[in-house]
Design brief:
mainly alpha, Non-ribosomal Peptide Synthetase Peptidyl Carrier Protein, Chain A, about 55% helix
Length: about 70
């Protein structure tokens, strides 16, 4: 799993995100498209694509896509 692939998967999972518009430093919770549906969709995407069961609290504690990737990779 690579960070670039993870960011692509995140962009595909969250509605209204332009492909290629996010970086590792993106603070995903500040995105206009970030809402409760996006929150649940990302949890489901991580479960389906990476077989990692994220807890809501862990997702809330990450600030950037790179930090979220590190959590999923661990």
């Amino acid at each position: 799993m690579s960070l670039a692939k993870f960011i692509e998967d995140f962009e595909e999972a969250v509605e209204d995100i332009e492909p290629g518009s996010l970086t590792a430093a993106t603070k995903y919770r500040e995105l206009e498209a970030w809402d409760s549906l996006a929150f649940l969709t990302v949890i489901a995407m991580v479960d389906a694509e990476y077989n990692v069961h994220l807890k809501a609290e862990a997702l809330k504690n990450c600030e950037t896509l790179e930090a979220l990737f590190a959590l999923v990779s661990a």
